[in-house]
């Protein structure tokens, strides 16, 4: 079952309270997404741990609905110097 | 944590340690079947690091088992010296910061 952008954003905002969350449906099909999450929750965590935190929030959706999820995960401090993208 | 059957677990561990740098991907390096896998292959080639690869599309048992073993739900997965480095986003980020080249420098020919 395709996941709506709204559902994806809601799940992330609920889990990472106060985070800046941007989501994008890359193909319009509800299964290839990109998400940017900026939260203090990621401070002091290595990239792999940050990704696992996000995957854990999405849980079963990662196993079924979501075929691809490109993640940009930062802390507010890391973005202060300018987003390299 | 999913309990993996011991035979599959052994096979996963053997495959991860087949080469110091191992890429679990969709397709193979000369013909990747997914844009994210293709991107990681191109970064590794750019760095000039020899790497082994395993096509998870032709190995469904290992594909599902490795997700549980790694606690990582997607492919590609880049493993170095038996440890998961990450998927395409992490590889791209580390490469942009020059960190991947440093990590992989010992394995260059």
Description:
Chain A has a single domain (5-77), classed as GMP Synthetase, Chain A, domain 3. Helix content of chain A is 38%, strand content 24%. Chain A contains four helices and three strands. Chain A has helices at 5-15, 47-58, 60-63, 76-80; strands spanning 20-25, 32-38, 68-74. A three-stranded mixed sheet of chain A has the order 1-2-3. The model of chain A has no long low-confidence stretch (mean pLDDT 90). With 109 residues, chain B is an alpha+beta fold. Chain B is 46% helix and 19% strand. Chain B has helices at residues 6-16, 35-47, 60-70, 88-96, 99-104; strands at residues 21-25, 27-28, 31-32, 52-55, 77-80, 83-86. Chain B has a four-stranded mixed sheet with strand order 4-1-5-6. In chain B, helix 1 packs across helix 3 (60-70) and helix 2 packs parallel to helix 4. The A-B interface holds A 47-48, 51-52, 55, 62-63, 68-72, 84 and B 36, 71-74, 84-90, 93-94, 96.
């Amino acid at each position: 079952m395709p996941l709506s952008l709204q559902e994806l954003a809601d799940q992330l905002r609920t889990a990472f309270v106060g985070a800046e969350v941007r989501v994008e449906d890359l193909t319009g099909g509800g299964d290839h997404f990109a998400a940017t999450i900026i939260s203090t929750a990621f401070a002091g965590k290595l990239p792999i741990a940050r990704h696992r935190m996000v995957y854990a929030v999405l849980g079963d959706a990662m196993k079924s609905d979501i075929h691809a999820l490109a993640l940009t995960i930062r802390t507010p401090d890391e973005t202060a110097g300018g987003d390299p993208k | 944590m999913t309990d993996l059957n011991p035979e599959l677990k052994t096979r996963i561990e053997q495959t991860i340690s087949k080469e110091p740098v191992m890429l679990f991907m969709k397709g193979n390096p000369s013909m990747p079947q997914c844009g994210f896998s293709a991107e990681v292959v191109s970064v590794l080639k750019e760095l000039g690091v020899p790497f082994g690869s395993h096509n998870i599309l032709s190995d469904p048992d290992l594909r599902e088992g490795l997700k549980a073993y790694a606690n990582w739900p997607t492919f590609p997965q880049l493993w170095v010296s038996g440890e998961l480095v990450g998927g395409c986003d992490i590889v791209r980020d580390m490469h942009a910061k020059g960190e991947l080249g440093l990590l992989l420098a010992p394995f260059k020919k």
